[in-house]
Amino acid sequence: MKGEVPYDDILLEVSKLEVIYNRAVMAIQGVSIKVPKGSIVAILGTNGAGKTTLIRAISGFIPSEYAEITDGTVIFEGEDITSKSPHEIVRRGLVLVPEREKIFTTMTTLENIKSSSLAKKEAIFSLETVYEYFPILKERSSQIAGYLSGGERQMLAIGTALLCQPRLLLIDELSLGLSVQVVSSLIEALKRMKKELGLTILLVEQNAEAALKIADYAYIMETGRVVFDGPPEKLLAHEDVREFYLGIKGGKEKSYKDVKQYRRTRRWWG
Ligand code: ATP
Question: What homologous superfamily does CATH list for 7-100+166-237?
């Protein structure tokens, strides 16, 4: 059943979203996803599939990219937040992890972590929470952030976002350019955050293999649309997903054209 996730308590629901760049390029078309409370949902897909556009549209950063949401809705905790400002969206608890290359390189690690913390009365996540999951940041707290490694910068970016008290954490390309070991330690930390803190995470990834290790449910996008969706075990068992998104060959050799034809003529999951 396309678009159906096996939970009742939906935190974020995107329906039939459409985004156009420069009044000309339709980057996403009719995209619908659901993110249940306390789950990790992954958006997968190759370059140009529309993943970043989707996550930007959800978090309110679309107008800064000369684009507009021309159709569809984004509902967060039952309220319509479509096209609201990033500031308003973050205050509601929908927090996009900043790009790790956009840290303040001349400030210390600690100054960076504290730079975006929202003064909220009901703070759940503290500096101690950040250090609990990323102890290396405590060790590096007085060090200039410009000297941090790629993995440490990603931890810093996630830690900074945690202090904004997210109810939903959006992460764009967690693993890009990082080693397998670093990616698995980041993934382990996210898994623990979900389990121990009840954090809900929407993860956008090109590295399908890494994302499917922690996701409860995943959507695969291609040229602006969701083409497959399901829990990881179903996606991992599907021959086309294995071949085209995980690079695992098996069964009869097919061309990409065959797969596209297959998708046009058959519905996903029957
Ligand atoms: P990647 O991982 O390479 O960033 P993606 O899945 O995140 O890919 P998007 O960056 O969302 O894909 O791009 C989706 C489509 O929108 C692509 O066709 C891309 O060329 C187009 N696009 C993205 N940003 C802009 C922009 N600022 N102006 C015009 N078109 C854009």
Answer: P-loop containing nucleotide triphosphate hydrolases (3.40.50.300)
